Amino acid sequence: MLNSVTDALRAELTSKLPAAAFRELTDAYLREPRGRYQGSGGLLVAPDCTEDVATVVRACADARVGIVPYGGGTGLVGGQIAESGPVPVILSLERMTRIRATYPAENVLVAEAGVILSNVQDAAEAEGRVFPLSLASEGSARIGGNLSTNAGGVNVLRYGNARDLCLGVEAVLPDGSVLHGLSRLKKDNTGYDMRHLLIGAEGSLGIITAASLKLFPKPAGEGAALMVVEGPEAALGLLALAGDLLGHQVSAFELINHMGLDFLAEVGPEVRAPFADTPEWMVLIDVGCVAGVEPSQALETLFEAAAERGLVTDGVIAQSGAQRDAFWAIRESIPEANKRIGSVSSHDISVPVGRIPEFITRAGAALATLDDFRINCFGHVGDGNLHYNVFPVRGKSRDDYDHQRHAVKRIVHDVVAQMEGSISAEHGVGRLKVADLNRYGDPTKLAAMRAIKAALDPLGIMNPGAVVTA
Amino acid sequence: MLNSVTDALRAELTSKLPAAAFRELTDAYLREPRGRYQGSGGLLVAPDCTEDVATVVRACADARVGIVPYGGGTGLVGGQIAESGPVPVILSLERMTRIRATYPAENVLVAEAGVILSNVQDAAEAEGRVFPLSLASEGSARIGGNLSTNAGGVNVLRYGNARDLCLGVEAVLPDGSVLHGLSRLKKDNTGYDMRHLLIGAEGSLGIITAASLKLFPKPAGEGAALMVVEGPEAALGLLALAGDLLGHQVSAFELINHMGLDFLAEVGPEVRAPFADTPEWMVLIDVGCVAGVEPSQALETLFEAAAERGLVTDGVIAQSGAQRDAFWAIRESIPEANKRIGSVSSHDISVPVGRIPEFITRAGAALATLDDFRINCFGHVGDGNLHYNVFPVRGKSRDDYDHQRHAVKRIVHDVVAQMEGSISAEHGVGRLKVADLNRYGDPTKLAAMRAIKAALDPLGIMNPGAVVTA
């Protein structure tokens, strides 16, 4: 059983850490972006070095006080917010913002956990390299949080998830010991992979304080196209064809449903697709090409081959960087339009790529038995990852469906589970999906997770209530 | 404390498993390829399905008898051989050889643990795809062992290690429960990544029984070149240039020292480099190109750019598949030549890629203080992974250095440790490097490994003596 923060713990931390480590606990630290979680309090501590993080963890372990690690606060599953229970220490990484080293010839960069993702991207860019992790909140999310949640984003198809972009981590474990794992090695088979255990553990096994990250050469040229497809099945055919013709030059492959475009027209932001009629389905294809391959030519070749096979009915290839950005603005504005409409329930799910059409059909049919909805289904179809979001029909609001929210989520997640999918593709478990994980997770995996949690965090102080429950 | 196999355990297994699961324990199961480990005995069991593997594990847990998992038997660190201690069950995966499913459109293949690596490659090829894990023992190594040891090989530069080629595993954990993790998902953030914990655990946390593996589109064209470089520093310059000019089309980048060519001339096999004089250093570059890029033209462009920068002094670009094979035959014959010469001590090490030249200088200087040796240093320089092998001078044999073997290994590993490197880059820890891991490993990592081992395998039955010791 954990204790709330005591005066004694406050005094101990005050005596051991510099004054700058203590900041005012504003409401920003207690709110989740969509306002679905509200923390009740905590002692905010922001160490600026690994040793001070270790000091905090040791003191909390001694006092049996929970620690909620806090990065950029952009998580969507409540992993950064403890709503109830004993008052915790909120350990923010916001002052650990150093790029410790860059090794451009090795394509490696070592960043502290508090570096904002876009600053990592910029540091890579300054060395003529790319750090390809890219997602909507990159201007405020911090790399430690990105790693702790194994963030996804738009370039997973080509470069993998956050875990695939990390060579090693430094972390403070629940007993306050420091794991020195900032490896720059591409190959290291000396025992259990602690990096991959901490990545995706959402702070429940320790606090990542720094990471060595993989950089990549910049593509020689980049381009994008919007192609209209009959439906998800044709989109998959186009995806396979793109793989055959362009190989790993395909960076992103995003499915967009007319509902997203309708929402944009209805509530903004003001962006529109470059087609006379709103297409039922379209895909945004982004490519980064090697020298000798001209991006718009490569996309033209793809389009022609796809048209021959009846996979596409219309398409526009970006003729400039500005047009490419305009295509991306459509995709990236959809979440904001969704927010303005107000979803009944949103689902960050994945299924095997080949089963996406079946999923869309089955989930839609299952929901139709409950009520009428508008469904905006879009996302990283190249990764099998859809944001399958369920909205009120016109004239109704989110609140009108309060009584059905739980049933909607259950229906969607049941279909996902029946189809060998994941109820959390890229956002993580946090506190939002603990019950879902317990419901749908493999019992052997859950038992192993609990055993590992108990072994590494026997007092249960690390992000209590997140991911794993006894 | 573990028990030896008893008649009661034999009887129980005989009653629960089909007769075909019991095979004669020939010496092949008790010998490591280089003859450095010799097992003393065991009960050989070869189940042909996951449930039977679970039955064996449960029976062994009840009887507190150790289990040594056995794949293709090609491991080089004694992970598959228990030399001493209570008589174990040797659990061979050789009968679990089904390709359970292929999903070519998804680039996924599901194979049982006993499938021989080259058969996985062939199954991918049959679908017009590539499974890129490639290593010398691919004709006898089994995929379960490749994953358990996180095998490396020649294509890591482009495609990553074995763990990067795996989407999910099915495994029997030490209590006999089955982890159902054969995911085909590219994104799944539902809790701790058990896949990555089991991969590289060398059977000490459970037995991988099947895996879903990533396939890749075939490159549109392939090619290879041998380029002569002044030394390791120039090789790194060439590597960086290749990345800049060819991007991820570079599949392999292997460094070859004249000593390897001298050994080939001295003891065979009869292959030779296509240069009039034996180059001091050369690199073998292999490329797999996208459509629109002609491999030999791309290599020509690279060679010209490298020559302009003074990075290469000579070079030959393969003009045919046969010539490409001939280049690879040089690289792949070196281990055989090494074996014929007989090393004093061999080291599978890695350092940060940029520090390779410094490593070669420092290790050579440190060894020179001990005695005269011939050093054959070659390998996957693109991954920072060298096979740094120390040989007798002409006229002496391996046995003449018996008294120095330990000192040689210590000197090399000390330099590796001082340079942030790994004492086991791709072969694993097994039983050979347990003491080295305890000596050089991060104490926090070692403590966490022991805690995880105790949590998941409290009886210590899984591959006792390998990787982790109390």
TrEMBL record, chains A, B:
<keyword id="KW-0285">Flavoprotein</keyword>
<protein>
    <submittedName>
        <fullName>FAD/FMN-containing dehydrogenase</fullName>
    </submittedName>
</protein>
<dbReference type="InterPro" id="IPR016171">
    <property type="entry name" value="Vanillyl_alc_oxidase_C-sub2"/>
</dbReference>
<dbReference type="GO" id="GO:0071949">
    <property type="term" value="F:FAD binding"/>
</dbReference>
<feature type="domain" description="FAD-binding PCMH-type">
    <location>
        <begin position="37"/>
        <end position="218"/>
    </location>
</feature>
<comment type="similarity">
    <text>Belongs to the FAD-binding oxidoreductase/transferase type 4 family.</text>
</comment>
<dbReference type="InterPro" id="IPR051264">
    <property type="entry name" value="FAD-oxidored/transferase_4"/>
</dbReference>
<dbReference type="InterPro" id="IPR016164">
    <property type="entry name" value="FAD-linked_Oxase-like_C"/>
</dbReference>
<dbReference type="InterPro" id="IPR036318">
    <property type="entry name" value="FAD-bd_PCMH-like_sf"/>
</dbReference>
<dbReference type="InterPro" id="IPR016169">
    <property type="entry name" value="FAD-bd_PCMH_sub2"/>
</dbReference>
<dbReference type="InterPro" id="IPR004113">
    <property type="entry name" value="FAD-bd_oxidored_4_C"/>
</dbReference>
<dbReference type="GO" id="GO:0022904">
    <property type="term" value="P:respiratory electron transport chain"/>
</dbReference>
<dbReference type="GO" id="GO:0003824">
    <property type="term" value="F:catalytic activity"/>
</dbReference>
<keyword id="KW-0274">FAD</keyword>
<dbReference type="InterPro" id="IPR016166">
    <property type="entry name" value="FAD-bd_PCMH"/>
</dbReference>
<dbReference type="Pfam" id="PF01565">
    <property type="entry name" value="FAD_binding_4"/>
</dbReference>
<dbReference type="InterPro" id="IPR006094">
    <property type="entry name" value="Oxid_FAD_bind_N"/>
</dbReference>
<dbReference type="Pfam" id="PF02913">
    <property type="entry name" value="FAD-oxidase_C"/>
</dbReference>
